[in-house]
């Protein structure tokens, strides 16, 4: 026999396990908040921009093929910026003990879509260090590219700067807490339904009929002990009153 679950049963399950769901959700939110505020190290980001200028010949105008070639050249620059040829010199100039490999993990190079602007972003625990790395990479690259590719069409468009009260890009505690709230709620609801699914105890006559497939012939009502005591007390009072009337007569 195919089993169907009504919306009422689902709501009853959620109501029954509401304390469990709230406990799991609250625990997830608290853990996320504590970890985000007290254990995760803030990471700051600094960015600089390079402009790749298209060389123009006096006798020729800029055409589509030249523009496409220039955009392909930007992709080549993106690779060269993170190469050991550049980062070894950056590490040496910074003098902070960072290796080229470590710098590579901090640097992200990208370019705006269909533009000649290259973005160099650096993430570090120290905002000043992030800005220094970004500016040093841009400076070293603009100098070394002259010898590497015999071109001098790269200029620094916007150097990286450190602003007062600069906020870290990660972690984002509020976002982490919101995610933990959703995940904790989903985990709590899932666990509630899972516990209900594996709960095979018989709670009412409907469970007997569903599990055994037999019709219900009768139901023994559950009598409240308080009501039992009240009924007993009333009977005892009546008996006492009846004895008193018998003695009086």
TrEMBL record:
Entry membrane topology:
Multi-pass membrane protein
Domain (Tyrosine-protein kinase G-rich) spans 142-194
Give the Pfam families listed for this entry: GNVR, Wzz
| Regions crossing the membrane | 18-40, 174-195
Kindly list the places in or outside the cell where this protein is found, as annotated in its UniProt entry.
Answer: Cell membrane
Q: Which residues form the Polysaccharide chain length determinant N-terminal domain?
A: 3-94
Keywords of the record: Cell membrane, Membrane, Transmembrane, Transmembrane helix
| Main subcellular location of this protein, as a coarse class | membrane
- Enumerate the PANTHER family for this protein: FERRIC ENTEROBACTIN TRANSPORT PROTEIN FEPE, TYROSINE-PROTEIN KINASE
Q: Which family does it belong to?
A: Belongs to the CpsC/CapA family.
Q: What name does the UniProt record give this protein?
A: Capsular biosynthesis protein
Organism listed in the record: Mesobacillus maritimus
